[in-house]
Amino acid sequence: xxxxxxxxxxxxxxxxxxxxxxxxxxxxxxxxxxxxxxxxxxxxxxxxxxxxxxxxxxxxxxxxxxxxxxxxxxxxxxxxxxxxxxxxxxxxxxxxxxxxxxxxxxxxxxxxxxxxxxxxxxxxxxxxxxxxxxxx
Length: 136
Fold this sequence. Notes:
Blueprint: E1 15-18, E2 26-31, H1 33-36, E3 41-47, E4 51-54, E5 59-61, E6 64-67, E7 73-75, E8 82-87, E9 96-101, E10 108-114, E11 124-125, E12 128-134
Antiparallel strand pairs: 1-10, 2-9, 3-8, 3-12, 4-5, 4-11, 6-7, 6-10
């Protein structure tokens, strides 16, 4: 998931936030339980490493956040996964496929990094682990 380039001059409280290049990034969930009508599930995310590494070896610590539609932010880490999508209904259609996405470029998964850790002309990368959960 690529993120936009940010200007260090846009920092707030020593942090800059980078939005996704594709503001409508999402995923399709195919749920064929209950005779193809689907059921309750959630998607959670956590980081494989608490750092993103730049192409020159510099790191950003705890750089990925999830911001929900109410502007509540949660930091992704290697510890407890953060729920990023939920589904609590059963479809009347068979072959249930649900496309889930963040409808606002300022919500969903974002990079939030300390300006003191950012080096110019450096591309950072990391791994986000997504888990599909069967929920009651």
